[in-house]
Amino acid sequence: MDIARYSIEKPVNVWMVVLIALLGGIWALGGIGRLEDPAFTIKEAQVITSYPGASAAEVEEEVTERLESAIQQMPQLKEVRSTSEPGLSRIQVEMKDIYDGTELPQVWDELRRKVNDEMPNLPSGVRTPIVYDSFGDVFGMYYALTADGYSNRDIRKTVKELRRELLTVDNVAKVSILGAPEDEIVIAMDQDRLAQLGITIADVQNVLNAENAIQANGTTVSGDLRIRISTVSAFDSYRSIQDLVIGNPGSTAMVRLSDVATLSVEEPENKCSGSS
User: Fold this and answer.
1) For 174-231, what is each residue's pLDDT tens digit?
2) pLDDT tens string 135-152
3) pLDDT value of residue 272
4) Which of 9, 21, 64, 247 fits as disulfide partner to 89, beta carbons 3.0 to 4.6 Å?
5) pLDDT score of 243
């Protein structure tokens, strides 16, 4: 069939085909789904395990191979790649293409179970493996919060409440907080006063650690009931730190922390590095 001759002899038919194609294209364009920030389904995850002090060969033999063997039992697995460095194991896990975004969370949960089940077989110096699977997260909106005249504590409380409310909004999957102001209690010791009392900074640190430690105090039985015994931290307020009693071991002389130190609440210093 000579298309060129037919187009010249039957121009009406040709224009009808062009018009139908044009209208069909316009209709299809209006019906195509469009997202400002489309979701990307990434079927890969990383398993990072720290083994301080171990050589690359030890990491490979004692950590990487054992975790790989556990991960390879997953039927969803497509490919696994690993890198063993001194003190660090990296395992790249890729799942089969048949799994979509709705099925992957369950797959990653199974991956975590496999890794956790293998933990008792790892050496004692190995830290808990971390599974990263959130490579496809897309943040579509950023909000900045300023509050002149409010304390850092009030700002943190407000930000957490906003985060909790935002998570209830439809189609909001994740809300992260960055740059929230923090506070730290700075204790400036009076070295001369400590020397007069025979108290060292280490003594003060030991008392602070002991008073702030959370310890298991056991249980007791009362009839048919088993009652848990617990003690609260001594530091429930800023004033309680000031009133902390310290002294020289073996001596009856005791003083309050506020008598030998100045306490203040400040923002953490920003750590920065540079070159000159």
Assistant:
1) 888 888 878 788 888 888 888 888 888 888 888 888 777 766 667 788 888 888 776 6
2) 766 667 888 888 888 888
3) 43
4) 64
5) 80
Q: Tell me whether the CATH fold assigned to 44-132 matches the one assigned to 184-266.
A: no
CA-nearest of 259, 227, 221 to 243 is 259
- Give per-residue pLDDT as tens, 105-120: 899 999 999 999 999 9
Calpha distance 213→114 (Å, rounded): 34
- Letter for the amino acid at 169? V
For the chain, the domains span 44-132, 139-180, 184-266
Residues 234-263: pLDDT tens digits?
666 767 887 888 877 666 667 888 888 888
Neighbours of 202 (CB within 10 A): 8
Q: Look up the CATH number of domain 44-132.
A: 3.30.70.1430
Tokens in use for 217? 């105090």
CA angle centred on 244, ends 196 and 199, rounded to 5° = 25
Q: Give the C-alpha distances (Å, rounded to integers) separating 265 from 29, 100, 184, 192, 255.
A: 59, 49, 6, 23, 22
Q: What is the mean pLDDT of the chain?
A: 83
Cβ pair 129, 67 in contact under 8 A: yes
